[in-house]
Design brief:
It is a single chain. By secondary structure, this protein is of the alpha+beta class. It has one domain: Cytochrome p450, CATH 1.10.630. The chain is built from 18 helices and 11 strands. A 4-stranded mixed β-sheet has the order 1-2-7-4. The N terminus is likely disordered. Catalyzes the 3'5'-hydroxylation of naringenin and eriodictyol to form 5,7,3,'4',5'-pentahydroxyflavanone and 3',5'-hydroxylation of dihydrokaempferol and dihydroquercetin to form dihydromyricetin.
């Protein structure tokens, strides 16, 4: 019995030593913070949803003044983190980028984007990487953009001609309609080898209305996304509208793809974007692309490719009409560099720093995606000493950063000169300078960033160089916003134009 007693004592001593050792090691190690970021209390069950109102980007910017650069809101049954300063955005989109590389499930991805089979909402993984790679190689990357530069020139010619005809008839130009008509045809030629709208009219206007509706409803804070157990009730009637809109888009895109496949023999030796994508249908089991992926990708490129860039250009023209001295200085720069006997070329853009400053200032004050597209945390993490749980949704308030007086001097003023000298002169909107991230940043930065910058600078430059701009007699300039995935003008810009160049240069 004595050996057993000794053994028991030794075991007890060993156990006690083990427990004491664990206790002291844990006591000495830094304890992970479990404190959530500050934020509003919200309401029972629905949380902070009512606090967001009709303009969530504005409401969240106001909250950030009280709660700080990183906020945490309970929205329904979901947690949402909001980054409201450049440093906070950098922490989420650069330092913790891989942890926030997925999108949260939502009705827009399900009902509009073919159940997230597109590139925008797809899960971060092999299929998304393949779609992104193909898009960069054959449409959105530098070489691809150079390859279809002649299409941009031609389609701008068609748009200028239509605008000049309106001018000769003393009719105002509805800027958004003209831009949508031109951009949809640019993208249609690259993707499908055809102008999707041969003439500007009811068909192109209907498409514009559909795109605006998609961007608007996809930006709604849908109760069903945040309280999934009641999603089936569709209390706001949002999902029903999404389903009806999807049917319209699906019919349009299905017909485009069908016609494209039937005319394949006409493109022998001259493949377009869809030809290249369809040639890569099967890379491996993980990267197998389906017809649904193709249609979802076309939907991405048609909608985001037309609406985001056109909204930036429309806001820029609006600000220039509001501030005639800016328009005058832009005209003077272009007349000095280009003259008035030809249209602007893309090769002229690097020689037009004031035009580029106008574009940057518009990206700052009127970002096309005010809250960026939402992301979700794959694992729990820590930001600024605060605990961010797993499956937390992330919104980066790009609009709020652009209007922050701690970041920008006189942020409510439209002042392109801020980007010509000093610390702001080197700021670039391509995702590395977090003071100005209109396209987002990190792995899920907008795939069309390069294309978007080219289109905005080239088309805006062409419109400014080609025409004088003024409001129709007796009208007032409306600067109100309409919230959605893209930040539209609440009242589209309608303006009178006068040609500044010889009529011969307006032809396609």
């Amino acid at each position: 019995m004595v050996p057993n007693t000794i053994l028991l004592r030794e075991l007890a001593a060993a156990a006690l030593l083990f427990l004491l050792t664990r206790f002291f090691i844990r006591a000495l190690l830094p304890k992970p913070s479990r404190k959530l970021p500050p934020g509003p209390t919200g309401w029972p069950i629905i949380g902070a949803l009512p606090l967001l109102g009709n303009m969530p980007h504005v409401a969240l910017a106001d909250m950030a003044k009280k709660y700080g650069p990183v906020m945490y809101l309970k929205v329904g049954t979901c947690g949402m983190a909001v980054a409201s300063t450049p440093d906070a955005a950098r922490a989420f989109l650069k330092t913790l980028d891989i942890n926030f590389s997925n999108r949260p499930p939502n009705a827009g991805a399900t009902h509009l984007a073919y159940n997230a089979q597109d590139m925008v909402f797809a899960e971060y993984g092999p299929r998304w990487k393949l779609l992104r790679k193909l898009s960069n190689l054959h449409m959105l990357g530098g070489k691809a953009l150079d390859d279809w530069a002649h299409i941009r020139v031609s389609e701008l010619g068609h748009m200028l001609q239509a605008m000049q005809e309106s001018s000769l008839q003393n009719e105002p130009v509805v800027v958004a309609e003209m831009l949508n008509y031109a951009m949809a045809n640019m993208i249609g030629q690259v993707m499908l080898s055809k102008r999707v709208f041969v003439t500007k009219g009811s068909e192109s206007n209907l498409f514009k209305d559909m795109v605006v509706e998609l961007m608007t409803v996809a930006g709604y804070f849908n109760i069903g996304d945040f309280i999934p157990s009641i999603a089936w009730m569709d209390l706001q009637r949002i999902e029903g509208g999404m389903k009806r809109l999807h049917k319209k888009f699906d019919m349009l895109i299905t017909n485009m793809v069908k016609e494209h496949m039937e005319t394949a023999h006409e493109r022998k030796g001259k493949p377009d974007f869809l030809d290249f994508v369809m040639a890569n249908r099967e890379k491996s089991e993980d990267e197998r692309l389906t017809m649904t992926n193709f249609k979802a990708l076309l939907l991405n490129l048609f909608t985001a490719g037309t609406d985001t860039s056109s909204s930036i250009i429309e806001w820029a023209l609006t600000e220039m009409i509001k501030n005639p001295s800016i328009l005058k200085r832009a005209h003077e720069e272009m007349d000095r560099v280009i003259g008035r006997d030809r249209r602007i070329l893309e090769s002229d853009l690097p020689k037009l720093p004031y035009l580029q400053a106008i574009c940057k200032e518009t990206f700052r004050k009127h970002p096309s995606t005010p809250l960026n597209l939402p992301r979700v945390s794959t694992e729990a993490c820590e930001v600024n000493g605060y605990y961010i749980p797993k499956n937390t949704r992330l919104s980066v308030n790009i609009w709020g950063i652009g209007r922050d007086s701690e970041v920008w001097e006189n942020p409510l003023d439209f002042t392109p000169e801020r980007f010509l000298t000093g610390k702001n002169a080197k700021i670039d909107p391509r995702g590395n300078d977090f003071e100005l991230i209109p396209f987002g940043a990190g792995r899920r930065i907008c795939a069309g960033t390069r294309m978007g910058i080219v289109l905005v600078e080239y088309i805006l430059g062409t419109l400014v160089h080609s025409f004088d701009w003024r409001l129709p007699e007796g009208t007032k300039l409306n600067m109100d916003e309409s919230f959605g995935l893209a930040l539209q003008k609440a009242v589209p810009l309608s303006a009178m134009i006068t040609a500044r160049l010889p009529l011969s240069v307006y032809a396609p």
